[in-house]
Design brief:
The protein folds into three domains: 4-71, no CATH class; 79-88 and 346-455, Aspartate Aminotransferase, domain 1 (Alpha-Beta Complex), CATH 3.90.1150; 95-344, Aspartate Aminotransferase, domain 2 (3-Layer(aba) Sandwich). It is built from 19 helices and 17 strands. The protein has helices spanning 10-15, 17-26, 28-49, 56-70, 97-107, 130-137, 148-160, 181-188, 203-209, 236-245, 273-278, 304-312, 314-318, 323-337, 341-344, 346-352, 355-369, 403-411, 444-456; strands at residues 79-80, 115-116, 121-122, 141-145, 164-168, 174-175, 179-180, 191-195, 214-220, 249-255, 283-287, 298-302, 373-380, 390-398, 423-424, 426-428, 431-434. Strands 4-12-11-10-9-5-8 form a seven-stranded mixed β-sheet, with helices on both faces. The chain has a four-stranded antiparallel β-sheet with strand order 13-14-17-16. A two-stranded parallel ribbon has the order 1-15. Helix 2 (17-26) crosses helix 3, helix 3 crosses helix 4 and helix 5 runs antiparallel to helix 14. The two termini are 39 Å apart. Bound molecules: pyridoxal-5'-phosphate. Pyridoxal-5'-phosphate is lined by residues 147-149, 152, 173, 175, 179, 220-221, 223, 253, 255-256, 287, 298, 384.
Length: 458
């Protein structure tokens, strides 16, 4: 058994050529930490289990592995071949090239974030994107906050705290990540008043519930589930009418808030922001990174006097939008204003992609790999929109004895020094299924690289 004294010193390891290259790549502190930890582990393994003292090469390899892991961000890009377009766990909407450029421009330099260029004095970050939003949606005013969950909270807190807010029982939703309407209501200080039954709510249910303590009606979009069968619900227009008769506000939490008509693509019609405003909602809120196809943001549009009160509420400061999100949002909105959303926003390109064109891509992948089988299947929109709806697609599939193992292999391909990009697929009919619809064109080469290396080991 080698003696502990044969362990090299920190300085000796730093002096090797690999040690020097680690110093170069990772800096002094991190490299020394990795060396100390590695030496410490070797020492205790030797003392506790009489393990062999590793040689210098072995130690250096271990140090290299540690440094690589420590310096790797846990947030990194993946290839989404799941066929779920707005995959919440994979970051929802990928941004357009213009939106990315806007982030780089504003993030890497000083900007007009809170500066009035005409007067040369302090300006307001709450103004960015508002002009575009009001023009696009024909709304009186707009406000952008951190995300839609905070938009709902702000509306209720600033305008309904201490009062009753009426909502249909069928709309007491929970969406992913623990956002529950009753909990948000509680946080806001508004008192939840449920009306109707799970499947049916009538206009008279609303009317009978309104009293002097009521201040608003909230409608929440059933983003991620559907109620089918014996159901009824008044239209927003009707609700707005009876609410306004009593001097109550109408808030509409649309969740996804489509700006284009999803029915054009063979999907169910997802409620549109423009419709909500036209039907009489006083305030409408929706996400920036769902069907809008932009960055994370919560967008509130509607009555100018109410938006003004939201802007002046202290909570608005706590949930303000980040400058890079505002830059990307403006660039995304410009695509809609110019009528080029379908060509420029990845989300709409994916929704609009034709099955034939997807089949060609899947077939090209199969040709390149010499493996797999192209089958007809379905993509979904996901991300809290269009539950139960799907788009016809063609996917490259692999029938293997352990599909879960292949899926895991694609996620964690060649860990260690050179990570080839992770691929997220799904299992359908016991086959590993890869849908080109959600794979960006510039990712195809990487996808094939990962597939080749992982399939080769199967
Ligand atoms: C998604 C969603 C939210 C939350 O939006 P985030 O942007 O994720 O904060 C709120 N309400 C509804 C109806 C939703 O679908």
């Amino acid at each position: 058994m080698k003696n502990l004294r044969s362990l090299p010193s920190v300085d000796a390891l730093l002096g090797t050529s690999l040690g020097e290259s680690h110093l170069d790549t990772y800096g002094h502190n991190l490299t020394v930490q990795a060396i100390r930890e590695t030496l410490g582990e070797a020492r205790s393994a030797n003392l506790e289990r009489e393990a062999q003292i590793p040689g210098q090469d072995e130690l250096l390899a271990d140090i290299g592995r540690k440094l690589h892991v420590w310096a790797s961000p846990t947030l990194y890009p993946v290839i989404n071949a799941s066929g779920v377009i707005l995959h919440t766990n994979l970051g929802r909407a990928p941004l357009s090239v213009d939106a990315l450029n806007a982030i780089r421009d504003v993030g890497g330099q000083y900007s007009t974030l809170e500066f009035d260029m005409e007067k040369g004095t302090r300006g307001s970050r709450l103004e960015h994107a508002n002009e575009m939003l009001t023009r696009l949606l024909d709304a009186e005013a707009a406000l952008v906050v951190n995300n839609n969950a905070s938009a709902v909270l702000l509306m209720l807190k600033a305008l309904a705290s201490g009062y009753k807010v009426v909502i249909a029982r069928s709309q007491l939703i929970e969406i992913g990540g623990g956002f529950r309407i009753p909990d948000v209501m509680l946080q806001s200080g508004a008192e939840l008043t449920e009306v109707g039954t799970t499947n049916r709510v009538h206009l008279r249910d609303y009317e009978q519930t309104f009293d002097v303590e009521t201040t608003a009606v909230l409608r929440a979009h059933r983003s991620n589930f559907a109620i089918v069968g014996f159901t009824t619900e008044p239209e927003l227009k009707e609700i707005a009418q009876v609410a306004h008769n009593q001097g109550l506000y109408v808030f509409d939490d649309l969740g996804s808030g489509a700006l284009l008509d999803t029915a054009k693509y063979g999907l169910e019609h997802e409620p549109m922001v423009q419709e909500s405003l036209a039907e009489g909602a006083d305030l409408v809120c929706f996400s920036g990174d769902k069907l809008l196809g932009g960055p994370q943001a919560g967008i509130i549009v509607g009555r100018g006097d109410l938006i003004e009160r939201l802007k002046n509420h202290p909570l608005a400061r706590a949930i303000r939008a980040d400058k890079m999100a505002l830059a990307a949002l403006s660039a995304t909105l410009l695509h809609y204003l110019k009528g080029e959303a379908e060509e420029k926003i990845p989300l709409w390109q994916m929704i609009a992609a034709q099955p034939e064109e997807i089949r060609h891509r899947a077939e090209a992948w199969r040709e390149a790999l010499g493996r797999g089988e192209v089958v007809e299947t379905q993509s979904t929109v996901g991300g809290g929109s269009l539950p139960g709806e799907s788009l016809p697609t063609f996917a490259l599939t692999f029938r293997v004895s352990h599909p879960q193992a292949l899926l895991a292999g694609l996620r964690t391909s060649s860990p260690g020094v050179s990570r080839s990009p992770a691929v997220i697929g799904r299992i359908q009919d016991e086959r590993v299924t890869l849908d080109p619809r959600t794979v960006l064109l510039h990712q195809e080469k990487d996808l094939l690289k990962t597939l080749e290396s992982v399939l080769g080991t199967q």
